[in-house]
Write a structure and sequence with these properties.
The chain is mainly beta. Helix content is 6%, strand content 42%. It folds into two domains: 103 residues, Phosphorylase Kinase, domain 1 (2-Layer Sandwich), CATH 3.30.200; 72 residues, Elongation Factor Tu (Ef-tu), domain 3 (Beta Barrel). It has a five-stranded antiparallel β-sheet. Strands 6-9-8-7-10 form a five-stranded antiparallel β-sheet, with no helix packed on it. Strands 2-3 form a two-stranded antiparallel sheet.
Length: 183
């Protein structure tokens, strides 16, 4: 979502949510497992002059009932690694797989997206000819499908428990929480 210059987005935070569990055996060994599920939660504040509230009200009217919107991750979505130029999948990879074949210089920890769906993945392993992403792919990746690694945007849905409170004054703000749209 691109707001006009009349609306300032501040206090943007992103939370990486990975449900995990652990237990400890009678020998003292600790076992940690993840569920394979992962999603992001975001929080942000819209600051504006009250005469510009129409733009905020339009945003809320369009998206507070579960319609997904896209928002830049700002610096968090800016790539700073060694990969240059376009990056494409060199083989088709099915939904549920984690290894995507591609000639790359991406670093472990980088974020990527695929053009046919907006889920954000993290590179957890790499070779010169493949990347392993977490979580497992939620959609098929096609041969020659571009892999996005620069200017990552989150596709999110506003949380149903947002309070939608605004102060009545000349300058006001509203805090919103959202979760990555998982389809």
């Amino acid at each position: 979502m691109n707001f006009s210059n009349n609306i300032k987005v501040s206090d943007f935070t992103i939370k990486d949510t990975k449900p995990m569990y652990s237990n400890q055996s009678w020998t003292g060994q600790r076992i940690v497992r993840d569920t394979g599920i992962q999603y992001y939660e975001i929080s942000f504040v819209l600051n504006f002059n009250i005469e510009n509230r129409g733009e905020v009200q339009t945003f809320l009217a369009q998206y507070q009932h579960g319609r997904p919107f896209s928002m830049s991750l700002g610096y968090y979505g800016t790539y700073a690694g060694k990969q240059t130029g376009g990056l494409v999948a060199s083989a088709q990879t099915g939904k549920g797989n984690m290894v995507v074949n591609t000639n790359n210089k991406l670093a472990v920890g980088e974020l990527v997206q695929f053009t046919n769906h907006k889920k954000i993945y993290q590179v957890i392993e790499r070779t010169d000819t493949s990347i392993t992403v977490f979580p497992a792919l939620q959609n098929i990746v096609l041969v020659n499908e571009p892999i996005i690694y620069e200017n990552i945007e989150i596709e999110a849905v506003l949380n149903p428990d947002n309070e939608y409170q605004m102060q009545v004054g000349m300058i006001t703000s509203i805090k919103l929480n959202a979760m990555e749209n998982i389809v």
